[in-house]
Amino acid sequence: MGSFSWPLTQWLSIAVSQILAVTYTQSILYTAHSLEDYNLRRVLDGFQDTAEGHIVAVTSQLLVRCEFAPGRVRATAIPLRAVESLDITRITEVRGPSGVWPDRLEFEVKAAGEVFTFPPSRASNYQGLPAVLDAVRAAMVRA
Length: 143
What we know:
Elements: H1 10-23, E1 30-33, E2 53-58, E3 62-69, E4 72-79, E5 83-91, E6 105-111, E7 114-118, H2 129-142
Antiparallel strand pairs: 1-2, 2-3, 3-4, 5-6, 6-7
């Protein structure tokens, strides 16, 4: 694994380390965060960083949420087989056999009594969400 080329704040370094420790050798299908309007360049001292939010990572077997706030970082892993429900909240309509579908997808997953929103914020990306949806569906069928 290579080193990061940008300076990591303390919470980000710990969060990435925790996510990698939990996922270990599993391929990560999707990662996103809830942090909006955050500029790392404005953070002069990592100990004074006031960032709060969470990072979500999904593998074919795990749903990982790493919550962070000043002085606290905590990763929790939930097996995808614990998914209770899946709600599609937004999707592009099928427009025939051409192109990639779905290219715009939003959904909520209920697992272990919590609701996980994908994507977690408006700043998050949509790439990878179809793979997450596939993994969630497969886990629901296996359970």
